[in-house]
Design goal:
Chain B: Belongs to the ABC transporter superfamily. The complex is a heterodimer of chains A (about 350) and B (about 250). By secondary structure, chain A is mainly α. Chain A contains 14 helices and no strands. Chain B has two domains: about 220 residues, P-loop containing nucleotide triphosphate hydrolases (Rossmann fold, 3-Layer(aba) Sandwich), CATH 3.40.50.300; about 30 residues, no CATH class. The termini of chain B are far apart. Classes of the chains: A mainly alpha (about 350), B alpha/beta (about 250).
């Protein structure tokens, strides 16, 4: 069937589209380059002062350096640097897909109550020694946080399956969850001992200092599991941004796609929060930065969100080590301070294309 | 050439019956069928039911097609204004649904053709959010056409267009249907457009089919009085074509 009632045309728009796509790929590769640079700087920085050449030697020829340097680089700095990458990427991808399926620019693990639920779960362990799931004391706090985060995410997920529930309702439910868990957290803090209160406050600020290879592996594995599933549905997820009716008219099972995405997003959001505490800004802003740079075609938006989130948190990790020499400030606090100026520049230089 | 027929078609939303008893003769490819009726009569519901987007009783019979129900394309009234996508990307994603990531040259040629045919190629790299309602409606038509359906259901495709564009789009659809053998159903409020461009007309009122058949037989003074509650005359225009002239509403 021929569509045109005019003479066949040269693909003039096609050429311009190819150039645009190429530019986006280059942009994403530049972000990846910046990310590697940030990881390298992150590993070079720390209370123990090592020359960059020693750090590189420890990385690429571990046998040639002494045990202390090897332990510092491989067992302390590298897990922290990679945790920043995997957590930033997970939260940003989770935020990107929440914003996509809920058609709301304010959706993120933080604004939908998942982070607040995790904080409450962690506080239950830190203040009352309450294990939601009876396990070794060492893992009680992250497992409490994870379970509460999953409960919040599943609540949002199942609410979204109910007939007549709109995306606006879901966002309102999320806001209600934030207030509920914050109130419960305040109650626990009021009842807590001074020592427990300090622990809760520190946890809710978010910190990468408890990173281990196991935690890096778990967050990385969830990313490796979820991102290809999103990538496989890239055209369909992009079509959701045209509205449910339009997406359905393309043959997409909108309800099924939204549920499948919400399940994956729940995992992506809950696991990092349970390991590192509340880091609110990345899940909200990472996707917005990506959107402003490459638009919302998921073939570009998904990798760009992933890299933007990873870069944002990795850069924040660097800054958190450099503000006060010898001290590492809580990353949840620094994230906003690093991200906001950059975000403002993007918003005001790109007003017409933002949400 | 593709053809379809509707037998006892209805639709339900939960327990609410939104549409019932739609029967038509065979609607053949190459012809345009108008779906008319008052607001909230069930026109969009009929389209969604034909496209398989809602459930309900009855059957949509298709013949002379190898593709099955996926050859039916429903075009909703609007396309997302908030999406951070260019016109070109939004048409590309309509064409690529169910395909891999790779964009082939033939995909781009199809998009260029359809944008040029609708004379919106100058908008190709504008953001959807920068477009007027009418421009977005043209993009929506482009998204539908690039999918190359054999049966196209267009839900009020001209509601936001200026008069020139309305005539241009309907004339284009008429010529395209004849040339390609596509069966086109168009929900319309302008009955003069139905008289001018549509071979058949289905009238929907209160969730039921009130009439169906050749347009000149369906759009009558009696139908206008019963369904639309207006006193109107059908007169011939300077080109000898029938024209609805409304005198007054019936209170």
């Amino acid at each position: 069937m021929t569509l045109a009632l005019v003479q066949p045309v040269e693909a003039a728009g096609g050429g311009r589209y190819r150039a645009l796509a190429y530019r986006r790929i280059v942009l994403i590769l530049c972000l990846v380059g910046a990310l590697f640079l940030s990881i390298a700087v992150d590993m070079a920085l720390g209370p123990a002062n090592y020359a960059l050449s020693d750090v590189l030697k420890a990385l690429f020829n571990a046998a040639s350096v002494d045990d202390q340097l090897r332990v510092v680089i491989w067992d302390i700095r590298m897990p922290i640097a990679l945790m920043a990458v995997t957590v930033g990427a997970s939260l940003s991808v989770a935020g990107a897909q929440m914003q996509t399926i809920l058609a709301n620019p304010l959706a993120s693990p933080f604004t939908l109550g998942i982070s607040a639920a995790a904080s409450f779960g962690a506080a239950l362990g830190l203040v009352g020694g309450v294990a939601i799931f009876p396990v070794a004391v060492h893992y009680m706090v992250p497992i409490n946080a994870f379970l509460m985060a999953m409960i919040a995410a599943l609540f949002i997920h199942f609410a979204s399956t109910m007939r007549g529930v709109t995306v606006e309702t879901i966002v309102l439910l999320g806001i209600a969850l934030v207030f509920t868990f914050n109130a419960l957290l305040s109650l626990l803090e009021y009842l807590a001992s001074e020592q427990a209160l300090a622990a809760v406050v520190f946890w809710t600020m978010g910190s990468l200092t408890k990173a281990t290879w196991v935690k890096v592996g778990v967050t990385g594995a969830i990313l490796v599991f979820a991102v290809p599933l999103f990538a496989r549905r890239a055209w369909a997820l992009t079509a959701l941004r045209l509205g449910d009716d339009k997406a359905a008219s393309f043959g997409i099972n909108v309800r099924g796609l939204r549920l499948e995405t919400m399940m994956l997003v729940s995992l992506l959001a809950a696991i990092p929060v349970s390991f590192v505490g509340t880091i609110g800004f990345v899940g909200l802003v990472g996707p917005h930065i990506a959107r402003m740079l490459v638009g919302e075609d998921q073939r570009f938006f998904l990798p760009a969100s992933l890299v933007c989130g990873a870069l944002l948190l990795s850069a924040t990790s660097v800054v958190s080590k450099t503000i006060i020499p010898g001290a590492i400030l809580p990353i949840g606090v620094i994230t906003a301070l690093v991200g906001v100026p950059f975000f403002f520049v993007l918003i005001f230089s790109n007003r017409r294309r933002s949400w | 050439m593709v053809s379809l027929a509707l037998k006892g078609l209805g639709a339900k939303y939960g327990k609410h019956v939104a549409l019932s008893g739609v029967d038509t003769d065979v609607l053949v490819g190459g012809a345009i069928t108008a779906v008319i009726g008052p607001n909230a009569a069930g026109k969009s519901t009929l389209f969604k039911r034909i496209a398989g987007l809602t459930s309900g009783p009855g059957t949509v019979y298709l013949s002379d097609t190898d593709k099955g129900p996926e050859t039916i394309c429903y075009m909703p009234q609007d396309t997302g204004a908030n999406a951070v996508l260019t016109v070109y990307e939004s048409v590309l994603l309509a064409a690529k649904q169910g395909s891999g990531w790779k964009v082939h040259d033939r995909d781009l040629t199809d998009i260029d053709q359809v944008l040029r045919a609708l004379r919106i190629d100058d908008l190709a790299f504008r953001g959807l959010g920068e477009l007027s309602g009418g421009q977005r409606q043209l993009v929506s038509i482009a998204q539908a056409l690039v999918r190359k359906p054999e049966i196209l259901l267009m839900d009020e495709p001209t509601s936001a267009l200026d008069l020139f564009r309305q005539i241009e789009v309907l004339g284009f659809m008429k010529a395209l249907a004849v040339r390609s053998g596509m069966a086109v159903l168009i929900a319309l409020h302008d009955l003069n457009h139905a008289l001018r461009y549509c071979d058949n007309t289905i009238v929907i009122a209160d969730g039921k089919m009130a009439a169906s058949g050749p347009t000149a037989d369906v759009i009558t003074q009696a139908m206008l009085r019963d369904i639309y509650r207006v006193e109107a005359r059908l007169e011939a225009c300077s080109q000898g074509k029938p024209l609805v002239i409304v005198d007054s509403s019936i209170v």
